[in-house]
């Protein structure tokens, strides 16, 4: 199995459409899968050749693997003390959980809020202060309803695999002088090996697809970011 990085969901989906319409590729199309992030699409499974991630996105699934978040934080912040690593990892998870709750609430209420507006205050925001989050987002109309829904969403147990990978990249980059969001993303990409990838829910789903379609995973090419 070989992975080709498309660099964007739109590019990957366009490649899928080209393959589906090309008669010369028809015999090979059953051996081509297009893996995309689920994002806010709450449906599951396949749409033709397209496989959606089991979690919200692949980066978050990878970050949920034991030790990966700490490994990335260690490399980005140059810290090795275990207590400090766990402190930073716990803070990242809490902030990502808050941003997930805001995103879910916005989705449920049809508000279309720009979650990135939280960035201005988020690094200093007490994570449990949902009123401050509403202030940072500029929520005025329907404020009580928003806060009520936000509290319900935030009260669910944190699940890093359901958070947004871009949020994790941003949060981990806070306070790092030489790392921005994009550089942090690269660190997540190289923090695992193929065996760890195929241990994720999405990795297992892709492995099942490969077996079903006669493309056994016996030669996996590692790609370093």
The number of distinct β-strands equals 3
Average predicted confidence as pLDDT: 82
Distance between the termini: 18 Å
Strand order of the largest sheet: 1-3-2
Sketch the topology as an H/E string, one letter per element.
Answer: HEEEHHHHHHHHHH
Q: What percentage of amino acids are in beta strands?
A: under 5%
Show unreliable segments: 221-225
Q: Which secondary-structure class do the elements indicate? A: mainly alpha
The coarse overall form would be globular
> Count of helical segments?
11
* Rg, nearest Å: 19 Å
- The biggest beta sheet, please? 3 strands, mixed
Portion of residues in helices?
40-55%
Short recap of the structure:
The chain contains eleven helices and three strands, in the order αβββαααααααααα. With 225 residues, the chain is mainly α.
What does this structure look like?
The chain has 225 residues and is mostly helical. It is 51% helix and 4% strand. The protein has a three-stranded mixed beta sheet with strand order 1-3-2, with helices on one face. Strand 2 and strand 3 form a beta hairpin. Helix 3 crosses helix 4 and helix 8 packs across helix 9. The radius of gyration is 19 Å and the shape is globular.
Using brief descriptors, characterize the structure shown.
225 residues; mainly alpha; 3-stranded mixed sheet; 4% strand; disordered C terminus
């Amino acid at each position: 199995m070989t992975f080709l990085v498309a660099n964007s969901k739109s590019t990957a989906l366009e490649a899928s459409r080209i393959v589906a319409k090309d008669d010369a590729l028809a015999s090979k199309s059953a051996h081509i899968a297009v893996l995309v992030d689920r994002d806010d699409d709450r449906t599951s499974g396949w749409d033709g050749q397209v496989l959606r991630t089991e979690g919200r996105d692949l980066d978050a699934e990878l970050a949920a693997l034991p030790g990966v978040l700490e490994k990335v934080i260690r490399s980005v912040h140059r810290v090795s003390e275990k207590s400090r690593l766990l402190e930073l990892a716990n803070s990242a998870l809490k902030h990502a959980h808050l941003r997930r709750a805001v995103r879910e609430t916005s989705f449920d209420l049809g508000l279309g809020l720009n979650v990135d507006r939280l960035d201005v205050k988020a690094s200093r925001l007490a994570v449990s202060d949902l009123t401050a989050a509403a202030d940072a987002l500029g929520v005025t109309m329907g404020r009580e309803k928003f806060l009520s829904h936000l509290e319900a969403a935030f009260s669910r147990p944190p699940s890093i695999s359901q958070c947004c990978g871009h949020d994790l990249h941003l949060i981990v980059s806070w306070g790092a002088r030489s790392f921005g969001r994009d550089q942090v993303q690269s660190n997540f990409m190289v923090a695992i090996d193929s065996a760890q990838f195929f241990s994720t829910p999405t990795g297992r789903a892709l492995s099942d697809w490969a077996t079903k379609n006669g493309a056994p995973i016996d030669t996996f090419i590692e790609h370093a970011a």
